[in-house]
Amino acid sequence: MTEILKAALVLFVLLGSSVLGRVIHPLLSERHRNREVIDFVRLVVAMLVTFAALVLGLLTTSVKASFDKVGTDLNGLSIELIRLDQCLRQWGEETAPIRKELRAYTAAAIATTWTEEPRPPGDYYPTHVPVIHGSEIESSVLANMLTRIEFGIRGLEARDPTHRRLETTGIAQYERLMQTRWRLIEEAGSSMSTPFLVVLIFWLAVVFAAFGLNAPHNLLSYITIALAALSVASAIFVILDLDQPFGGIFTVSSEPPAPRAEAS
Question: Which of 148, 171, 188 is the last residue of a domain?
Answer without folding.
Answer: 188
